Amino acid sequence: MPIDTPAWVRDTVFYQVFPDRFATSDRVAKPGPMEPWDAPPTQAGYKGGDLIGLTERLDELVDLGISGLYLNPIFSATSNHRYNAYDYLVVDPLLGGDAAFRELLDAAHERGIRVILDGVFNHSGRGFWPFQHVIEAGLASPYRDWFYLDGDVLDGQRGIDAYPVGWQDGSHVRTGYRAWWGIPSLPKLRVENPGVREFLFGVAEHWLRVGIDGWRLDVPEEIEDESFWPQFRSRVRAVNPEAYLLGEIWKEAPEWLSGDRFDAVMNYPLGIAILGLVGGPALNAGVIAAQSNYARALVAIDGPAFGRRLEELMGLYDPDVTAVQFNLIGSHDTPRARTVMGGEATALRLAMLLQLTLPGAPSIYYGDELAMEGRADPDCRRAYPVTLEGAGPEGLATRELVRALLTARRDHVALRRGGVRVVAATDRAVAILREADGRRAIVAVNAGAAPVTLDLGAAAVGGTLAGLSGAGLRPLELPAVAAGAVLEGGTAATLPPQSALVLVDD
Q: Which of 92, 229, 465, 483 is the most exposed place for a label (fewest CB within 10 A)?
């Protein structure tokens, strides 16, 4: 099947926002007391972030260089994460409701920022009105086949128990229906049912007509009907042929990116490789062990191993897929990248440098540009600083670097498009050649504790680092990570410990 990925994504830098934790506005009245903004987050607590607060801070994101927003769920729900929707067609009043989203969407589009929403279509919340109908009406409910009810429930031998006692402490409970990971508040939707299917397709189409630019799809592998996602894509693309479809899949997934389902997946394998190289011996084993996917895959690696892994990942998909992959080093489901790497802000900056200079659409998890820390959920969902100055010196230094990198990415096509070739790797250092549209760039990183000299001869033309256009390559001025790097003899670079060098065509 032909690959057809949205052209706009190739030059987009996403910023992921967990709405309850980013910013709050006095324009959105709160119905009662909220958890203190600066207090450690709790599993169930609300900080009171809203969409107007995000709108009021959009210009900070524009200044940073952001051109896309990915919002965690915003529909009416009974949790701060909102992965348990009770109304898919209404924005949660705590976030400001539909009017606040309209204002955010218009303000973002006026600034050239695309917006994608989180679509949770494998399961709903138990407050979802069809499920409530089943709770109240039992087998008389015409919605009973929208969910996976147990056989003895369907036989009339028992009712469902949506609020069982004991499941929180790991006790075995019988709810009478299938739920995501057995959590009673998340009944699984029976997507093979025509009514459910049409409802979900209608939800996707509705918000596209409102004006969103795509969907991030939650746990898509858990939808067992193989025809669902191809039909979903067909319905979405009929409304917006340029809609971006992003699947939350944590592993390499070429079968999902062959043109009939998604444009991209969340590129955790690349992020894990970056963290493994840059974190090295500083990786926090306890923090990693608390996240199941990291516990299976995240280990310290050296420069040559990173180079091999990078080239493997860059060759895994069609180039048009690689160009729109969603590249991240952390999200609401993982510990913060800085915390994973032992709390080192310099390591975070080097990791973000690699992330932001590789093909694909990088995604910055809110606050990573301010060097925020946090262990596994809920700690990784701390409140964003009320002011940028509140991030402190390390946070501001990190933001300055990210801003410089995003400016360079915008100005130099070879830092955002085209191919990747590893031209040198040793110890915990690597040099990568980027080429696009007759332009060239070299990204060199030394994550180790000792100076390293990298032979860049494999990237040289005619014995020197002459650009493909005939002009020479020059180093970018990058705050906080580029001090002390030296070019020697036209083809070698010596990098101090924990430093980087980025060379671009004049």
A: 483
